[in-house]
Amino acid sequence: MGRAHEVRAASMAKTAAKKSAANGRAAKEIYMLAKQGGADVTANLALRAAIDKAKSNQIPTDVINRAIKRAEGGDAENYVENRYEGYGPGSVAIIVDSLTSNVNRAIAEIRDTFNKKHGKLGSTGSVSFLFQNVALFSFEGNQEEILMDLLDRDVDVLDVSQDDDVVVVKAPFTSFALVKQALDEIGIKEYLVAEIRMVPDEVVVINDQETKDQLNQLLDKLDELEDVQAVYHNAKLD
After folding, report:
1. Is 12 exposed, middle or buried (0-12, 13-18, 19+ CB in 10 A)?
2. Which domains are delineated in the chain?
3. How far apart are CA 185 and CA 183, in angstroms?
4. Does the CA dihedral 47-50-55-60 come out positive or negative?
5. pLDDT tens-digit readout, 28-75
């Protein structure tokens, strides 16, 4: 069938692996939050935010509902959170958050991926000082109107910016629930992003194509791992 068929097949397999991993990480997060704080989204704002994030990432509704039902049914499965830090090609700083029921499997697969894809895991704190933990929201709207509404509600935010028709709000991670509640009250119905995220203080510009390709391969592979919940880096790849 030729090389073109092989390329298409490989691309489809990678897309399927990423989709499966995305569904799995969303289900785990929603399950844990529902188990810890209850399934009522009006009382459990963290769960509501996780559901909003899942929907913005095109996670199927049945995946979300099954995760909540598992939690309500008293499922006994537990997950452990861990954070791993290291460097990728081009000295790019990378943070990997894991949520897993098997810590040994998670660290083995993450370390193996770094080693095989031109990266190296470091010790705790080796790159996290290059990032800030912030609450991040993005949605369609008007920057000036949103900023005024947030100021009227005396909500603590770090920055409100506009990118075309999309408003981006950054806030201290400890203010996530309060800012989310304020934005809901303002009338924001759909979020492109609504989560706590590690944001780099400065970015590393990668111009060399080979380095860029190697870094993308590492990030893609990490994104496919079952136990990886989130990956953050400080590279600018555009």
Report:
1. exposed
2. 2-72 (1.10.10.200), 79-238 (3.30.70.980)
3. 5
4. negative
5. 999 999 998 999 988 888 888 888 888 878 899 999 999 999 998 877
